[in-house]
Amino acid sequence: VCQGMEPPPPSSPPQPPGEGDEQLLLEELRRAEEEEAQLDRTIAYLESAERDRTEEVKELSKRLEAAEEVLRPLGGDGDNKDAGELQPGGKTDGPFNRVLSTAIKTGWMHKMGRIKRSWTRRFFVLHNSSLTYYTDAQCRVMKGCLSLNAGVVRRDDSRSDFHFFIDIPGRTLQLSASNELVMNEWIKAIREVLRGNESTLGTTLTRTHEKSGWISKEGKINKSWKRRFFVLFEDGMLSYYRDETAQTEKGSLSVRGGDVRTIDIPKGAPTSHNFQICTRSRILRLAADTPDDMRQWMQVLQNLIDKLLGKRTNVKVLFVGLPGSGKTTLLKQMKILFKGYTEGERLGLRSAVYSELLRCIQQLLEGAAFLGLRVSDTDAARRVSSLPLSATTVSPEIGRDISTLWKEEALQAAYKRRREFELPPHAHYFLEDVERTCARFYVPNYQDIIRAQILQRETWFDIESLFFRAVTLSGRFADRKRWGFHFSDASGVVFVVSLASYDEAMEGGENSLRESLLLWDDIASNAALRDAPLFLIFTMRDVFSEKLQHSDMVDTFPSYSGAQCCQWMREGEHEFPLPPSPFNPKGGSNVEQ
């Protein structure tokens, strides 16, 4: 085996002891110096990035303040130097003017998010026992509330800007003021409130409170149930503690402007006597020990909410109907009448208007091709057809292409035969005004918003002492099984029917108007709605009148005996003799009937 193998190389002479170790140490030392230099460069980069970030935040704050001076309607007296900041006791046009009338201090500050660690500008309102913050100076949307029954306020000495902290049991809120004077004023005001509220629970109960007792609550993040001692104070703060002798609270919730209702038994609830408090910042689910205890808590809570908001009555109205009946259009019209859209909301709806415009022109091009009509400007047609319906903007160049295509004889002929293919009912409105819609600084008006397809499930507004909440229920058959959740606390039902649906078919082939009749029967006979008034609203009268020109109702409903009425409507008559009926025994002319 060993034959043919080369002899091993001679071994190297042994190194003097310590010489190899010295070289290894030198290499490690050189490597450590390089790592230290790299670490110094990284630290310098991070410090530079932190300084740049601070400057960006300051610059962004200045821009936000300048923009809100222009865009946000100002409240308070005209002599207020801080734009959008109201003096305590000042008046506002919002529904929560009583929030400001009892405030100790109000103003704008930046806060650090609790979960998402980013800075957000909020309008803060300080009361005797709480600090609430809103998205606007009119206090329309409350984003959070802190109970100041116990805690500490301190400055952040590690930073050169105007940061300070509020430490309360269970949370630390980090705030940033616009300058040192504003920061010192807030720290002084909050410390005075905390000094007045620092006490044990036994001393706290000497404050005027409406009710106290044991209730089980569901956790906000960890959905587990824990038994806590609750105290409801007359200023609307609902605080809960570990037991009757606890010195600090575990949490609190402002019930001002909230809603109290019973709910189905949640998962893991310790009892079956469940109810919830729904505010604009949180939904708190509770479980009482007995039915009587639950009724007492709900009654006391609702009475206090009505008292704080001037005995406001909560009304929840459901809008029910098949898809395409016009429920969402009614909601948009009601919001325009009683609440309105802010300029920011209207700007946010531009994408919906653009989507509607593209849907109209693309479906019209497809309809023209279906009818065998060809457009001459094929390049413009190709550019317009290639745009997705989800486009967030339409350039003026594309707008000119749409306007050119709309004026072509082929598309005009296709539009006249639009009943032969699918086309949005408001196509003429959007295609006739393309230049305005595609302008650079376009802001949708109310007519654009009403005609565009905008998904809006709920809206609310105040009418004097009435808090009106309107909710639309999806008319699809698969979604009707979830309607029962809304029936229990409904104040009324508005049933919406499209008059133009008399000759339309649903996805399953059923006649749309016949399906509306069946759905109406189900709603009218529902036991959960026996005390709720029902309102029947017919929509799309203009489309109905147009359809009667070419689609007779007798073709769809052979038993219909009012063919003469359809003839009068086709001839444009708005007043015609009516046959005798229980509402009009003598017959004759009656436009209202």
How does this structure look, described?
With 593 residues, the chain is α+β, with helices and mostly antiparallel strands. Helix content is 36%, strand content 21%. The chain has 19 helices and 21 strands. The chain has helices at residues 19-71, 97-101, 180-197, 201-204, 291-308, 327-338, 343-348, 350-370, 378-385, 396-406, 409-416, 427-432, 434-437, 446-451, 484-487, 512-524, 541-547, 553-556, 563-570; strands at 105-112, 119-126, 130-134, 142-147, 152-155, 163-168, 171-176, 209-218, 225-233, 237-241, 251-254, 259-262, 273-278, 283-288, 313-320, 458-463, 466-472, 492-498, 534-539, 577-578, 588-589. It has a 7-stranded antiparallel sheet with strand order 4-3-2-1-7-6-5, with helices on one face. The chain starts with 18 loop residues before the first helix and ends with a strand. Residues 72-96, 199-206 and 581-593 have low confidence and may be disordered.
Strand share of the residues? 15-25%
- The low-confidence runs, each spanning 5 or more residues with pLDDT under 50, are 72-96, 199-206, 581-593
Strand order of the largest sheet: 4-3-2-1-7-6-5
Quaternary structure state of the chains depicted? single chain
Any idea what the shape is? globular
Structural class of the secondary structure composition? alpha+beta
Helix content class: 25-40%
Q: Round the Cα radius of gyration to an integer and report it.
A: 34 Å
Q: Count the E strands.
A: 21
> What is the count of helical runs?
19
Average residue-wise pLDDT: 77
The main sheet comes to:
7 strands, antiparallel
